[in-house]
Amino acid sequence: MVERKxxxxxxxxxxVGFRPAVYKIACRLGLGGFVYNDAxxxxxxxxxxGEVIAEFLDELGSGAxxxxxxxxxxxVVDDINxxxxxxxxxxxxxxxxxxxxxxxxxxxxxxxxCLAEMRDEEDFRYKYPFINCTxxxxxxxxxxxxxxxxCNTTMGGFEMCEKCGGQYGDVSDRRFHAQPVACxxxxxxxxxxxxxxxxxxxxxxxxIEETARLLxxxxxxxxxxxxxxxxxxxxxxxxxxxxxxxxxxxxxRPFAMMADSVEKIKKYVEVSQTEERLLKSGExxxxxxxxxxxxxxxxxVAEGVSCYGFMLCYAPLQWLLFEHFEGxxxxxxxxxxxxPLIKDNDEAVDKLGSIADAFLMHNRDIYRxxxxxxxxxxxxxxxLIRRARxxxxxxxxxxxxxCEDILATxxxxxxxxxxxxxxxxxxxxxxxxxxxxxxxxHYVESIEHLCGLFEVRPIVIACDLHPGYFSSxxxxxxxxxxxxxxQHHWAHIAAVMAENNCRGEVxxxxxxxxxxxxxxxxxxxxxxxxxxxxxxxxxxxSYFKLAGGDKASRQAIRPMMGLLVxxxxxxxxxxxxxxxxxxxxxxxxQRVVLxxxxxxxxVADTSSLGRVFDAVAAMAGIGSVNRFEAQLPMGxxxxxxxxxxxxxxxxxxxxxxxFEISIDKMxxxxxxxxxxGVSAGVIAAKFHNCIAxxxxxxxxxxxxxxxxxxxxxxxxxxCNSYLLERTIIALKKRKFKVLYNKLLPANDGCVSVGQAAxxxxxxxxxxxxx
Length: 770
Hints:
It is a single chain. By secondary structure, the protein is α/β, with parallel strands linked by helices. The protein has 5 domains: 2-91, 2-Layer Sandwich (Alpha-Beta Plaits), CATH 3.30.70.100; 104-188, DHBP synthase, CATH 3.90.870.30; 190-276 and 283-364, DHBP synthase (Alpha-Beta Complex), CATH 3.90.870; 378-517 and 749-763, Nucleotidyltransferase, domain 5 (2-Layer Sandwich); 522-529 and 538-712, ATPase, nucleotide binding domain (Nucleotidyltransferase, domain 5). 31% of the residues lie in helices and 22% in strands. It contains 22 helices and 31 strands. An 11-stranded mixed beta sheet has the order 7-6-14-8-9-13-10-12-11-15-16, sandwiched between helices. The protein has a 7-stranded mixed beta sheet with strand order 28-29-25-24-23-30-31, sandwiched between helices. Strands 17-20-19-18-21-22 form a 6-stranded mixed beta sheet, sandwiched between helices.
C-alpha cells in the first residue's frame, strides 16, 4: 500500500551534505517525493510502500550514506495525502521564513579527499587554498543568515564558474550544494602585503612561498585564517618568539603551535591514541600535550608549564604554507593582548601593523570571528578548556520547548553568553574578559548578531548575582524583560547538569578564583546541594581575609598573608619573615597588607581555592605574581612530583546544617616545608593530594546529610588535569557517580549555559532534559 509521509528533521543538517544523502537513499529505495531546507532544518516528503519508508528511516539514522558531520536531533513524522502521479525524488530550493531552529554547522577542518585533490597536479583545484566540499570547510564563520545558502554567506559575492557550478548542481558530487565551493578561476585569492597593507606579491602561490621564507628568517607574519587572523613566527627561534611577546604585549602566557603532522608533533610532546584522534578530528582544536625534555622548541614559547598546546593544520592555506616550511609555527590569536580577535583586512593592518612584518591576506570575508578551541584529555575523554572554532554554535537540546526566548549573559571573565529558543540552548564562542572596552563592545555586537541569526528576541535574561559585573549590568539595563539572577557557583553546577542530561539533585563541588556569594563574601571552594530549580550551600572553605581587591588576584603575597594570619590565629608573622621577604621584598607593602587584614580595611572574606593555589605556589618558589590568569597555579601543577603520595592535613569542621573545611594546618605545613627547603615538586604534590582528599571529604559529608551520591564538578580550578583526575578517581572509589564538564569548559566559559538552563527550568516549571 502506497503511503506519503512528511518528515521534519532538526539538528546539524544544513551545510553538511544532508540533502544529497537523503536524495541518494530515496532514489536507491525507489521512493518519490522531495527534500528542501527551511529555517527549521530539513523537510522531506516521501511516497512509497510503508516498509520501504521504514527502511529509509533506518538508513537515514545509521546507514553508509549518512554524512559524518550531520547530527540529527529530532525527526517528526506526519501522515499526509498521497500525491497522484508522483515522479521520482527531487531536491527543491530552500524556503525562507518561519521560526529559525535549524542548527548552523561549525567550521570543519579540511577533509582527506579535498587535501588529496589539492595535492593532485591534475586536479583543477591543485594548490588552491580555499578548496572545500560538503564534508569540510568554513560554515559558522561565513554565514550571515539561515537557511545556509550561498547567498546568505560571505561567498555570495563570488559567482561560480562553469566547473564549480556543475559540481554544485550535481547531486552525485560531494560538492552538491557546498555553499563555499570555488576554484582559482572564480573564488577568493591569497596575496602578501607589507605591514602597511601594500601588496608585495599578488600571485597566491608565490605569496605563500614568500611567507614561508619570511617566517624562516625570523619575521612575524599575520595570516588570515578561517575565523580570524593568526600571528605566526618560527617556534624554534627564541629571538622571534620574544620579539612577538614584546610587540603583542603578551609577556608570559603560553603560545599555541601548529604542525603539519602528528609524527612531527610527537617529537616534542607525548601523544596518546585519544589525543591523536583529537588532533586529527574535524574540530581540530589546540590540544594540551605533555612536554618532552629538551625538545628544541624555544623556551619562551611556554615557560613554567608542563604542556605545549599543539594543533594540526585545519585550513588548506595552512597545509600549503607548510609545504615550504619544515619546522613548527607559533599560531597565536591575531590581536593585541586581551582584545578581540581581528577578522578584517583593514583592521588587521591598523591594529597589527606594528606587530606583524607582513600579512598573508585573502579576500574571503569572515563574518563571525572565531578563535581556536582548546582541549585536553581527562580519563581518556576529550574535555574542552575553550569552546570556539569547530564546536560553536552546536547547541544543547532541551526536551521541552521554552515558552519564551532567553538570553544568559554569562560571567565577566572568559565570557560566553547563551541563548534559548524553543528546545535549543546555544552557547556562543569564547568572547573574552569584559573589563576591556573593546571586548565589551564585541560582546554586545555578538549578542545582537546571534540573536539576529537565530531570530531570538529575549523576554527573559539570566545573569550573575554579582552587583558589579559588566555582563550583569548589561542585563539589568534592558527594558521590558524579566531578570533572573543566578549565583555564580550554582550556574557552574547547572552547566554540568545540563550537558550531562542530569535531572534531580546533585552534590555540587564548585571551585574557582572568585564568585559573588549570597552572603556578600567571595566564594570559591563550595559544596552545594543543587538542582536546576534551587540550591543550598552545605559546606565551604573556612573564610580568610583577602586584602587589596583586584590586586589580590595578581600579587600572591596578599592571599598568602591572609591565610597565614588565619592559620596562626593572629597578626604576628615574624617566624615567617624570611619567607615573606623572598616572595615580596617590599616590607612596606607587607606592612600595609597586614594592617589591612588586622583592621578590616579593603578586605573581603573569601573561600577562594584559586587564591589558595596562588599562595602555595608562591611559598613553593614558583613565583610571586600572576602575569596572566592562573599563571602561578599552572606553574605549581607543572612541577608536581608524581611519585609523592603523601599529603598535607586538613579538617572538616561540622557546623549546624553543614560543615567547613579548614586548611590552617596545611598552610602552616606548606610554610614550614618551604622554610626548610623542601622541593617545589614535593610541596606541589602534597598540596594537590590534600585538596583532592578535601574534596572527597566534602562529598562524603554532603552524602551523609543528603543521601545523594551523584557529584558534579565545575569551576576553573578543575582545568587542572592532575587535580581533576585524582578527584574523579577518589570519588569513584567511594561509589560516587561523577559528572564534570566535557563539552563545555569547567572555567567561567560554562557559566552562561548554567544560567540559561536554570532560566529554562524556571520558565517550564521544572521540565528540563537534554
